[in-house]
Amino acid sequence: MAGRAQGTTPQGAGGPAAPVPLNILRAPGAVVVDGQLNDWVRSAPVSYEVDPNAFDQKARTYAMWDDQGLYLAYAVRDASPMKNAGDDPSAAFKSGDTLHFYLSTAKDLEAKGADGGPEDYHVVMTMQRGAPVIFAFRQQKAGVAKPTSVRSPATRIDLAWMGPVPGAELAVAVAGAGYTAEAKLPLAFFDGFRPEAGRRVAVDAAVNFSDPAASRNVAKVWWHRGASQILDIPTELRFERNLWGTGVFCGPGEAPVVIDSGNLFVTPAPGAVTVDGGVSLLSKFVWRGVKRNDDFVVQPDFSVHFGQFTGSIFGSFDTTEAPHGAQNEFTESRYIIQYGNSTIPGCAIIGGYVFYDFPNTPAQETQELFANVTLTQVMFAPSLSL
User: Fold this and answer.
1) Cα separations (Å) of 199 from 26, 151, 191, 194?
2) Tens of pLDDT along 158-174?
3) Phi and psi torsions of 234, nearest 5°
4) What is the pLDDT of residues 343-352, one digit of tens each?
5) N or C: which end of the chain has fewer CB within 10 A?
6) Kind of pairing, strands 22-26 and 58-65?
7) pTM, 2 dp
8) 260 vs 43, 55, 267, 279, CA distance in Å?
Protein backbone atom coordinates (compact mmCIF):
# COMPACT_ATOMS: atom_id res chain seq x y z
CA MET A 1 0.00 0.00 0.00
CA ALA A 2 1.52 3.30 -1.03
CA GLY A 3 0.30 6.69 0.07
CA ARG A 4 0.87 10.04 -1.54
CA ALA A 5 2.01 13.34 -0.08
CA GLN A 6 1.53 16.80 -1.53
CA GLY A 7 4.00 17.68 -4.28
CA THR A 8 5.94 14.44 -4.08
CA THR A 9 6.95 11.28 -5.84
CA PRO A 10 4.94 8.60 -3.99
CA GLN A 11 6.79 6.01 -2.00
CA GLY A 12 5.63 3.15 0.17
CA ALA A 13 6.27 2.74 3.85
CA GLY A 14 9.94 2.14 3.23
CA GLY A 15 11.16 5.66 2.56
CA PRO A 16 10.57 9.38 2.65
CA ALA A 17 7.92 10.75 0.33
CA ALA A 18 7.80 14.51 0.75
CA PRO A 19 10.74 16.82 0.02
CA VAL A 20 8.69 19.93 0.86
CA PRO A 21 8.81 21.08 4.50
CA LEU A 22 5.94 21.55 6.91
CA ASN A 23 5.80 25.32 7.41
CA ILE A 24 5.02 26.08 11.06
CA LEU A 25 3.61 29.59 10.91
CA ARG A 26 3.88 32.18 13.63
CA ALA A 27 0.29 32.48 14.92
CA PRO A 28 -1.11 35.88 13.90
CA GLY A 29 -3.17 36.08 17.09
CA ALA A 30 -4.81 33.99 19.78
CA VAL A 31 -5.70 30.49 18.58
CA VAL A 32 -9.02 29.17 19.86
CA VAL A 33 -8.95 25.36 20.12
CA ASP A 34 -12.53 24.56 19.09
CA GLY A 35 -12.10 22.03 16.26
CA GLN A 36 -12.93 24.62 13.60
CA LEU A 37 -10.40 25.91 11.10
CA ASN A 38 -11.33 29.59 11.28
CA ASP A 39 -7.85 30.43 12.57
CA TRP A 40 -6.19 28.54 9.69
CA VAL A 41 -7.65 30.09 6.54
CA ARG A 42 -4.26 31.57 5.61
CA SER A 43 -1.83 28.74 6.15
CA ALA A 44 0.52 26.28 4.47
CA PRO A 45 -0.75 22.72 5.07
CA VAL A 46 0.70 19.44 3.86
CA SER A 47 -1.60 16.85 2.26
CA TYR A 48 -1.35 13.06 2.25
CA GLU A 49 -3.62 10.11 1.49
CA VAL A 50 -3.78 6.33 1.56
CA ASP A 51 -5.00 5.85 -2.02
CA PRO A 52 -5.30 8.64 -4.60
CA ASN A 53 -8.15 6.74 -6.28
CA ALA A 54 -10.25 6.44 -3.10
CA PHE A 55 -12.95 8.80 -1.90
CA ASP A 56 -11.79 8.93 1.71
CA GLN A 57 -8.70 8.28 3.88
CA LYS A 58 -7.17 11.65 3.02
CA ALA A 59 -5.74 14.25 5.38
CA ARG A 60 -4.18 17.67 5.71
CA THR A 61 -2.03 18.87 8.59
CA TYR A 62 -1.41 22.49 9.56
CA ALA A 63 0.96 23.86 12.22
CA MET A 64 1.45 27.20 14.01
CA TRP A 65 3.39 28.38 17.04
CA ASP A 66 3.64 31.22 19.54
CA ASP A 67 5.54 31.79 22.78
CA GLN A 68 3.22 29.47 24.73
CA GLY A 69 2.53 26.51 22.49
CA LEU A 70 2.65 24.51 19.32
CA TYR A 71 -0.71 24.37 17.54
CA LEU A 72 -1.83 21.64 15.16
CA ALA A 73 -4.86 21.29 12.91
CA TYR A 74 -6.05 18.33 10.87
CA ALA A 75 -8.69 18.10 8.13
CA VAL A 76 -9.56 14.47 7.47
CA ARG A 77 -11.87 12.84 4.94
CA ASP A 78 -13.13 9.65 6.58
CA ALA A 79 -16.34 7.75 5.82
CA SER A 80 -16.60 6.78 9.52
CA PRO A 81 -15.17 9.93 11.12
CA MET A 82 -13.35 9.96 14.47
CA LYS A 83 -14.44 6.70 16.04
CA ASN A 84 -12.30 5.14 18.76
CA ALA A 85 -13.85 2.39 20.85
CA GLY A 86 -10.93 1.97 23.26
CA ASP A 87 -10.54 3.12 26.83
CA ASP A 88 -6.75 2.78 27.20
CA PRO A 89 -4.99 6.01 26.11
CA SER A 90 -1.65 4.23 25.83
CA ALA A 91 -3.07 1.91 23.15
CA ALA A 92 -5.49 4.36 21.51
CA PHE A 93 -3.73 3.99 18.18
CA LYS A 94 -4.89 0.34 17.99
CA SER A 95 -8.57 0.89 18.89
CA GLY A 96 -9.75 3.39 16.29
CA ASP A 97 -9.14 6.74 14.65
CA THR A 98 -6.13 8.66 15.93
CA LEU A 99 -4.06 11.67 14.93
CA HIS A 100 -0.27 11.62 15.32
CA PHE A 101 2.47 14.21 15.47
CA TYR A 102 6.18 13.48 15.68
CA LEU A 103 8.71 16.15 16.67
CA SER A 104 12.41 16.21 17.40
CA THR A 105 13.80 19.33 19.03
CA ALA A 106 17.36 18.17 18.32
CA LYS A 107 19.50 20.44 16.16
CA ASP A 108 20.97 17.48 14.30
CA LEU A 109 18.59 16.85 11.41
CA GLU A 110 20.68 14.04 9.96
CA ALA A 111 20.06 11.39 12.61
CA LYS A 112 19.54 8.07 10.84
CA GLY A 113 18.63 5.71 13.65
CA ALA A 114 15.23 4.05 13.95
CA ASP A 115 15.17 4.63 17.72
CA GLY A 116 14.02 7.85 19.35
CA GLY A 117 16.51 10.11 21.08
CA PRO A 118 16.12 12.20 24.25
CA GLU A 119 14.70 15.11 22.21
CA ASP A 120 12.18 13.07 20.19
CA TYR A 121 8.42 13.05 20.90
CA HIS A 122 5.46 11.09 19.54
CA VAL A 123 2.05 12.57 20.40
CA VAL A 124 -1.20 10.64 19.83
CA MET A 125 -4.56 12.46 19.84
CA THR A 126 -8.11 11.09 19.71
CA MET A 127 -11.52 11.08 21.38
CA GLN A 128 -12.42 8.20 23.72
CA ARG A 129 -15.79 8.00 25.46
CA GLY A 130 -16.46 11.56 24.35
CA ALA A 131 -13.35 12.96 26.05
CA PRO A 132 -10.16 14.23 24.39
CA VAL A 133 -7.01 12.13 24.72
CA ILE A 134 -3.54 13.66 24.16
CA PHE A 135 -0.96 11.00 25.02
CA ALA A 136 2.78 11.07 24.32
CA PHE A 137 5.67 8.61 24.11
CA ARG A 138 9.40 9.17 24.59
CA GLN A 139 12.03 6.51 24.04
CA GLN A 140 14.72 8.40 25.98
CA LYS A 141 14.38 11.02 28.70
CA ALA A 142 17.00 12.67 30.88
CA GLY A 143 17.06 11.20 34.38
CA VAL A 144 15.27 7.97 33.47
CA ALA A 145 17.57 5.01 33.98
CA LYS A 146 15.09 2.11 33.84
CA PRO A 147 12.82 2.17 30.78
CA THR A 148 9.45 0.47 30.45
CA SER A 149 9.30 -2.35 27.92
CA VAL A 150 6.35 -2.80 25.57
CA ARG A 151 6.44 -6.32 24.18
CA SER A 152 4.75 -8.53 21.63
CA PRO A 153 5.57 -12.08 20.53
CA ALA A 154 7.53 -10.59 17.64
CA THR A 155 9.46 -7.70 19.13
CA ARG A 156 9.76 -5.11 21.90
CA ILE A 157 10.45 -1.43 22.42
CA ASP A 158 11.83 0.29 25.51
CA LEU A 159 10.17 3.57 26.47
CA ALA A 160 11.59 6.02 28.98
CA TRP A 161 8.26 7.80 29.46
CA MET A 162 4.64 7.74 28.33
CA GLY A 163 1.64 9.60 29.62
CA PRO A 164 -0.87 12.42 29.07
CA VAL A 165 0.56 15.73 27.87
CA PRO A 166 0.06 18.19 30.75
CA GLY A 167 -1.97 21.26 29.80
CA ALA A 168 -2.66 20.05 26.24
CA GLU A 169 -5.97 20.78 24.51
CA LEU A 170 -7.86 18.97 21.75
CA ALA A 171 -11.18 19.67 20.02
CA VAL A 172 -12.77 17.69 17.19
CA ALA A 173 -15.66 18.69 14.92
CA VAL A 174 -17.33 15.93 12.88
CA ALA A 175 -19.16 16.92 9.70
CA GLY A 176 -20.56 14.37 7.27
CA ALA A 177 -17.79 12.43 5.56
CA GLY A 178 -14.95 13.77 7.66
CA TYR A 179 -13.78 15.81 10.60
CA THR A 180 -11.50 18.64 11.60
CA ALA A 181 -9.39 18.78 14.73
CA GLU A 182 -7.29 21.35 16.58
CA ALA A 183 -4.73 20.79 19.32
CA LYS A 184 -2.47 22.87 21.52
CA LEU A 185 0.74 21.34 22.90
CA PRO A 186 2.34 23.57 25.56
CA LEU A 187 5.97 24.36 24.85
CA ALA A 188 6.78 23.55 28.47
CA PHE A 189 6.17 19.87 27.65
CA PHE A 190 9.16 19.85 25.27
CA ASP A 191 11.81 20.22 28.01
CA GLY A 192 12.30 23.95 27.62
CA PHE A 193 12.40 23.99 23.81
CA ARG A 194 11.97 27.55 22.51
CA PRO A 195 11.23 27.80 18.77
CA GLU A 196 12.41 30.77 16.76
CA ALA A 197 11.93 31.93 13.19
CA GLY A 198 14.16 29.98 10.81
CA ARG A 199 14.68 27.00 13.13
CA ARG A 200 14.42 23.67 11.30
CA VAL A 201 13.32 20.50 13.09
CA ALA A 202 12.51 16.90 12.20
CA VAL A 203 8.74 16.26 12.10
CA ASP A 204 6.10 13.92 10.75
CA ALA A 205 2.31 13.64 10.97
CA ALA A 206 -0.01 10.67 10.54
CA VAL A 207 -3.65 9.58 10.70
CA ASN A 208 -5.02 6.18 11.68
CA PHE A 209 -8.32 5.09 10.12
CA SER A 210 -10.68 2.55 11.70
CA ASP A 211 -13.46 0.46 10.25
CA PRO A 212 -16.99 1.88 10.64
CA ALA A 213 -17.52 0.05 13.95
CA ALA A 214 -14.13 1.15 15.37
CA SER A 215 -13.43 -2.52 16.05
CA ARG A 216 -10.11 -2.52 14.18
CA ASN A 217 -7.80 -0.22 12.26
CA VAL A 218 -7.75 -0.56 8.49
CA ALA A 219 -5.08 1.95 7.40
CA LYS A 220 -2.49 4.44 8.56
CA VAL A 221 -0.84 7.10 6.45
CA TRP A 222 2.09 9.34 7.36
CA TRP A 223 2.78 12.66 5.67
CA HIS A 224 6.42 11.86 5.00
CA ARG A 225 6.83 8.10 4.90
CA GLY A 226 3.67 7.01 3.06
CA ALA A 227 0.97 4.50 4.01
CA SER A 228 1.10 1.18 5.81
CA GLN A 229 -0.96 -1.02 8.10
CA ILE A 230 0.96 -2.11 11.21
CA LEU A 231 -0.54 -4.79 13.42
CA ASP A 232 2.21 -5.05 16.03
CA ILE A 233 2.11 -2.50 18.90
CA PRO A 234 5.89 -2.23 19.57
CA THR A 235 6.54 -1.84 15.85
CA GLU A 236 4.02 0.99 15.53
CA LEU A 237 5.63 2.71 18.52
CA ARG A 238 9.06 2.76 16.87
CA PHE A 239 10.10 6.34 16.25
CA GLU A 240 12.00 5.81 12.98
CA ARG A 241 13.17 9.38 12.94
CA ASN A 242 15.24 8.58 9.87
CA LEU A 243 11.93 8.57 7.93
CA TRP A 244 10.61 11.92 9.20
CA GLY A 245 10.44 15.10 7.17
CA THR A 246 11.46 18.66 8.00
CA GLY A 247 9.50 21.41 9.71
CA VAL A 248 10.41 25.10 9.51
CA PHE A 249 9.37 27.65 12.14
CA CYS A 250 8.38 30.79 10.28
CA GLY A 251 8.07 34.37 11.39
CA PRO A 252 5.08 36.55 10.44
CA GLY A 253 4.59 36.44 6.67
CA GLU A 254 7.63 34.23 6.06
CA ALA A 255 5.82 31.04 4.94
CA PRO A 256 4.21 30.33 1.60
CA VAL A 257 0.57 31.33 1.96
CA VAL A 258 -2.14 28.90 0.87
CA ILE A 259 -5.71 30.14 1.02
CA ASP A 260 -7.72 27.18 2.27
CA SER A 261 -11.30 27.12 3.48
CA GLY A 262 -10.58 24.12 5.67
CA ASN A 263 -13.46 22.07 4.26
CA LEU A 264 -11.73 20.20 1.44
CA PHE A 265 -11.89 16.90 3.34
CA VAL A 266 -15.32 17.22 4.97
CA THR A 267 -18.80 17.45 3.55
CA PRO A 268 -19.30 21.01 2.24
CA ALA A 269 -22.33 23.14 2.84
CA PRO A 270 -25.42 22.13 0.80
CA GLY A 271 -25.03 23.25 -2.79
CA ALA A 272 -21.26 23.80 -2.51
CA VAL A 273 -18.89 22.23 -5.00
CA THR A 274 -15.29 21.33 -4.11
CA VAL A 275 -12.49 20.17 -6.39
CA ASP A 276 -9.29 18.31 -5.60
CA GLY A 277 -6.69 16.37 -7.53
CA GLY A 278 -3.04 15.76 -8.20
CA VAL A 279 -0.44 14.12 -10.39
CA SER A 280 1.57 11.06 -9.33
CA LEU A 281 4.87 9.77 -10.69
CA LEU A 282 5.13 6.03 -10.06
CA SER A 283 8.04 3.67 -10.71
CA LYS A 284 5.64 0.99 -12.00
CA PHE A 285 1.91 0.52 -12.53
CA VAL A 286 0.25 -2.47 -10.84
CA TRP A 287 -3.54 -2.58 -10.73
CA ARG A 288 -5.57 -5.29 -9.00
CA GLY A 289 -2.49 -7.47 -8.87
CA VAL A 290 -1.78 -7.18 -12.60
CA LYS A 291 1.43 -5.48 -13.74
CA ARG A 292 0.41 -2.93 -16.39
CA ASN A 293 3.81 -1.28 -16.84
CA ASP A 294 7.12 -2.17 -15.22
CA ASP A 295 8.54 1.34 -15.72
CA PHE A 296 7.70 4.93 -14.83
CA VAL A 297 4.17 6.25 -15.42
CA VAL A 298 2.53 9.61 -14.79
CA GLN A 299 -1.00 9.43 -13.38
CA PRO A 300 -3.17 12.55 -13.07
CA ASP A 301 -6.47 12.32 -11.20
CA PHE A 302 -9.07 14.96 -10.40
CA SER A 303 -12.36 14.85 -8.48
CA VAL A 304 -15.38 17.11 -8.13
CA HIS A 305 -17.53 16.74 -5.00
CA PHE A 306 -21.15 17.87 -4.69
CA GLY A 307 -22.96 16.80 -1.56
CA GLN A 308 -22.75 13.01 -1.33
CA PHE A 309 -21.74 12.67 -5.00
CA THR A 310 -18.25 12.54 -6.47
CA GLY A 311 -17.14 12.56 -10.10
CA SER A 312 -13.53 11.55 -10.85
CA ILE A 313 -11.22 11.30 -13.84
CA PHE A 314 -8.03 9.24 -13.73
CA GLY A 315 -5.39 8.68 -16.41
CA SER A 316 -2.16 6.72 -16.80
CA PHE A 317 0.56 8.03 -19.14
CA ASP A 318 3.42 5.70 -20.11
CA THR A 319 6.78 7.49 -20.20
CA THR A 320 8.63 4.47 -21.57
CA GLU A 321 7.63 1.68 -23.89
CA ALA A 322 5.03 -0.55 -22.29
CA PRO A 323 4.49 -4.25 -23.12
CA HIS A 324 1.79 -3.28 -25.64
CA GLY A 325 4.17 -0.89 -27.45
CA ALA A 326 2.76 2.46 -26.34
CA GLN A 327 5.30 5.12 -25.38
CA ASN A 328 4.72 8.71 -24.29
CA GLU A 329 0.99 8.12 -24.61
CA PHE A 330 -2.04 7.66 -22.36
CA THR A 331 -2.87 3.98 -22.09
CA GLU A 332 -5.71 4.06 -19.56
CA SER A 333 -8.41 6.43 -18.41
CA ARG A 334 -11.20 5.96 -15.88
CA TYR A 335 -14.36 7.98 -15.40
CA ILE A 336 -16.08 7.42 -12.06
CA ILE A 337 -19.37 8.56 -10.58
CA GLN A 338 -19.75 7.67 -6.89
CA TYR A 339 -22.34 8.16 -4.18
CA GLY A 340 -21.45 7.77 -0.50
CA ASN A 341 -23.72 8.16 2.51
CA SER A 342 -22.61 7.51 6.10
CA THR A 343 -25.36 9.61 7.73
CA ILE A 344 -27.99 6.82 7.75
CA PRO A 345 -28.19 5.48 11.33
CA GLY A 346 -26.39 2.15 11.59
CA CYS A 347 -25.48 1.98 7.94
CA ALA A 348 -22.83 3.24 5.48
CA ILE A 349 -23.50 3.03 1.74
CA ILE A 350 -21.15 3.51 -1.19
CA GLY A 351 -22.05 2.86 -4.81
CA GLY A 352 -21.12 4.00 -8.28
CA TYR A 353 -20.27 3.47 -11.91
CA VAL A 354 -16.86 3.22 -13.62
CA PHE A 355 -16.08 3.48 -17.33
CA TYR A 356 -12.64 2.19 -18.37
CA ASP A 357 -10.97 3.19 -21.61
CA PHE A 358 -7.59 1.91 -22.87
CA PRO A 359 -6.41 4.21 -25.67
CA ASN A 360 -3.35 3.23 -27.71
CA THR A 361 -3.66 -0.41 -26.61
CA PRO A 362 -5.44 -3.50 -27.98
CA ALA A 363 -7.63 -3.69 -24.84
CA GLN A 364 -11.35 -3.09 -25.16
CA GLU A 365 -13.20 -0.48 -23.14
CA THR A 366 -15.31 -1.83 -20.29
CA GLN A 367 -17.72 -0.74 -17.56
CA GLU A 368 -18.64 -1.78 -14.05
CA LEU A 369 -21.12 -1.00 -11.30
CA PHE A 370 -20.10 -1.29 -7.66
CA ALA A 371 -21.87 -1.07 -4.32
CA ASN A 372 -21.05 -1.66 -0.68
CA VAL A 373 -23.34 -1.65 2.35
CA THR A 374 -21.82 -1.80 5.87
CA LEU A 375 -23.81 -2.23 9.08
CA THR A 376 -21.85 0.09 11.33
CA GLN A 377 -23.58 -0.69 14.63
CA VAL A 378 -23.46 -4.49 14.39
CA MET A 379 -20.60 -6.49 15.87
CA PHE A 380 -17.70 -6.87 13.41
CA ALA A 381 -19.40 -4.38 11.04
CA PRO A 382 -20.54 -6.93 8.41
CA SER A 383 -20.66 -5.64 4.85
CA LEU A 384 -21.92 -6.72 1.45
CA SER A 385 -20.07 -5.73 -1.72
CA LEU A 386 -21.19 -6.12 -5.32
Assistant:
1) 12, 36, 17, 10
2) 888 899 999 999 999 98
3) -60, -35
4) 565 566 778 8
5) C
6) parallel
7) 0.66
8) 7, 20, 15, 20
